[in-house]
Amino acid sequence: MPVALGPFLTGLLAAKPQLRINILIWDFAALYAGEREWNSADKFTAGCDGRIRFCLDSSLPLGSSQHQKIVVIDNAIAFSGGLDLTIRRWDTSEHLAGHPLRRDPDGKPYPPFHDVQCMVEGEAAVALGEIAAARWTAAGCTVEGCEAAAGDRWPASVPAGARQIQAAIARTELRTASQPGVDEVARLFEASINTADRFIYIENQFTSATEIAEMLARRMADVPALQVLIVTPKAHASWLESQAMQGGRGGFVDPFIAAGVADRLRILYPAVEDGESSAAVMIHSKVMIVDDGFLRVGSANINNRSMGADTECDLAFEADGEEHFEFIRGQRRRLIGHFCGVDEDTIADNEDDLLGFLDRHAASGTGRALLPIDSETAPVGAMADIIQPIADPKHPLNLQRAARRMWTPRTVLAVAGTVAALAGLALAWQTTSLRDFADIGYVASVISRYSQSAFAPLFAVMAFVLGGLVVFPVVVLIAATAAALGPWIGAFSATAGVLLSSLLLFMIGRFLGHKRLQSLLGARALRVQRRIVGKGVVAVAMIRMVPVAPFSLVNVLAGASQLRLTDFLIGTVIGMAPGIIVMAALGAQIADFAKNASWSNAIPLGLTIVLWIAVCLAVQFVVTWWSGRRA
Q: Tens digits of per-residue pLDDT, 336-395?
């Protein structure tokens, strides 16, 4: 039979005329399109006469995923674990640093990959079949019923690890209008941790669920003999995962330090070295072993979303007799030895000081070892704080609620006020004595005099600094800079100018202090400060997008408040970015309008303003949702 999955399934259909294959996959969000084949259903079903059926599960809320990894065959044999049937998952148990066959379809090599899948038969297989059928139905697809096949279907080439062992299934299912949610995954973590007395072994792709860390730390504090070993990846491949999951890993260690039990904890990653090449093994498995009497293998990560935002399915086994204890103990020893390049007997001989053995083994310079994770490399700061609740939520993203929170009467008035302010500012440019100076064409012409100079961006930045000191309309400066210097240099110069002007005025406000400014500026200053203090990046970004006060005034009042400088600058970039990008992209139209005002070029400029407002509202919607999640 062919080795590749698609041709293999096609070959099975040819060999077995009665066979039907049903494949349910998550109808993934566009965010993951670069990592997945968008036309996989067409590839698999081509020429199969309808005997391969795909069901794209789009029933889950935005931000949630169908994360179960289940294969059920005739309701007689079933698999559950962490393995996805996709690219960049193939490897051998040796996890060589370089393997000629470990390449994706484009021929690009990828690092060693480790995962664990569990095969069961009997009642456990039937139960997994029921779960698969239920998900198929929940996705709005129909699937034919299947009775469990009679006879012994266990493949002779696979030795059974245990027989007649107590088995259970733990799920995470999302609450719907007709069905309550299921939180068995989270409850099983809590129950199993609270029974631990000696040793907990964990393999998991993510460690960002601080509630699990707190449970482990509390149990270790209550049981002085308890030790915990967690094997996890050194780093994550994508930027999104590094910001969300790897960023959350830094906070995962804090409860252990606070409880004073960190010396009995190891969070390690496997490294391999073959001659001159070395690599960190990617850990994708989800395994937990407690006191050699409890084994868990499944799809649930130790992150927030596996506890309530995604669908998950774990198999759990509990020892009943020495034979079962020996089976689970053997799995733990085999897995640890697997990463260290030693056999089970070596692990058994060092059980009395296993964590110390792992430390000494790593320090010996061997080619295979479990090495400490450097927690200092975890992303920190406001960007990680923004990404994490979106990428790793505890519950499905409730964007409908965010929309209701955003479109309040106050928001509608603010948007209307912004439009009116822009119109009023345009009218003031035409009717007051400032019209000769606060005119886009005039400012653009001044900046254009130096556009051929290497110092042109510097002149534009200084214009923002001076303009901020005299409360000059920042919108005019952005538009004029884009018109004079072009989209790329204009956008860069405007961004630098906005930041430098904001920083200068922020420091002036910090020097003056909030009481002095309130006495000078009155109640309005107090209202603006209340919008800023305690809300950080979110407040600054929202005020920048739908301003409640002039640009310069906001800068000074932010400095006079207790707002952190980093939050202020990041919020300024997020809030001002939509306008800068739109103005830079349409700088030519702005310049044309400034030189030759007419209806033909006024319409594109008007559309520019509308687009600016639309982009601002879209970004504000995301910020509103995030602030609601924080609350």
A: 999 999 999 999 999 999 999 999 999 998 999 999 987 655 544 444 555 666 677 787
Higher-confidence position of 479 and 127? 127
354, two tokens: 């296993």
* DSSP notation for 161-175: S-SS-EEEEEEEE--
Bridge partners (DSSP) listed for residue 100: none
> pLDDT digits over 392-435, tens only?
778 777 655 555 554 556 555 555 554 455 445 445 544 555 45
From 58, 81, 102, the end of a domain falls on 58
- Determine the Cα–Cα distance for residues 533 and 562; give it in Å rounded to an integer: 6
Residue listed under structure tokens 């998950």: 312
Give the tens place of pLDDT for each residue, 236-245: 765 455 555 5
- pTM of the prediction? 0.68
Burial class (CB in 10 A: 0-12, 13-18, 19+), 486: middle
Strand partners, 514: none
CB atoms within 10 A of CB 266: 19
What is the residue whose two structure tokens read 């073959």?
274
Backbone angles phi, psi at 542, to 5 degrees: -70, -40
- Give the type of residue at 45: T
Domain that holds residue 46: 1-58
Structural domains in the chain (count): 3
Question: Of 391, 413, 435, which residue constitutes the final position of a domain?
Answer: 391
User: Hey, how many other C-beta atoms are within 10 angstroms of the C-beta on 537?
Assistant: 27
CA distance linking residue 269 with residue 312, whole number of Å: 24
Q: What angle do CA 225, 230, 236 make, to 5 degrees?
A: 160
Kindly tell me if the per-residue pLDDT of 606 is higher than 80. no
Same domain as 428, residue 378: no
What pairing do the DSSP bridges indicate for beta strands 265-274 and 227-231?
Answer: parallel
User: At residue 631, what is the residue type?
Assistant: A
Task: Mark whether 425 and 490 lie in a shared domain.
Answer: yes
